[in-house]
Design a protein that fits this description.
Length: 163
């Protein structure tokens, strides 16, 4: 008798877990997929913001041709697709700031003054000439219009807004 009860309970559990008669989809299908990449944004709210690639793409990308200025040269580095840094700040409701620091995954970083941030072609780029950035530079690279190659931070992971 005890045994029969145990079997009954086991059977009930199995039916329960298999979701028999329920229209629920398996968890794996309903769980949203992880974003392709994220950026950490500090200095906007008390807690750091994890900005996903999906949110980034929703801001709307633009195309621009930022210039790289090294000692004696001023070079165009192709047609960049990305989100202007200023547009990102606006989406976060940032009105006043004294600098924006952009950091790469290797910890290398640059502090941009407002005059650099506000340049139209200063952007967080995701494509150059229609092609996604390679793993060394991407998925996101900073282009600082009119500044040298050392400003063009690769594989951006963090942005800090300085008040
Ligand atoms: N994340 C990250 N980006 C970086 C650097 C770095 O050390 N880390 N170096 C900068 C410097 S000093 C230069 S000269 C260029 C080199 O880029 P290139 O090898 O594609 O010319 O990347 C810039 N971006
Ligand atoms: Mo450099």
């Amino acid at each position: 008798m005890r045994r029969a009860l145990a079997i009954l309970i086991t059977a009930a559990m199995l039916f329960g877990f298999s979701g028999c008669g329920q229209s629920k989809k398996p968890a794996a299908e309903t769980k949203p997929s992880a974003p392709a990449w994220t950026l950490t944004i500090e200095g906007v709210s008390d807690k750091a913001i994890e900005y996903s690639s999906e949110e980034f793409n929703k801001l709307g990308t633009v195309e621009a041709e930022p210039q790289m200025k090294n000692k004696d040269t001023s070079e165009l580095k192709g047609k960049w697709t990305g989100v202007p840094l200023l547009k990102l700040l606006e989406s976060l409701g940032v009105k006043e700031y004294s600098y924006v620091a952009v950091e790469g995954k290797d910890g290398s970083s640059k502090e941009l003054t407002p005059d650099l941030v506000e340049k139209e072609a200063t952007m967080l780029g995701i494509k150059v000439d229609g092609k996604e950035l390679d793993s060394e530079s991407g998925p996101v690279q900073l282009a600082v219009d009119g500044k040298g190659s050392n400003w063009w931070i690769k594989s951006v992971t963090k942005i800090t807004v300085g008040k």
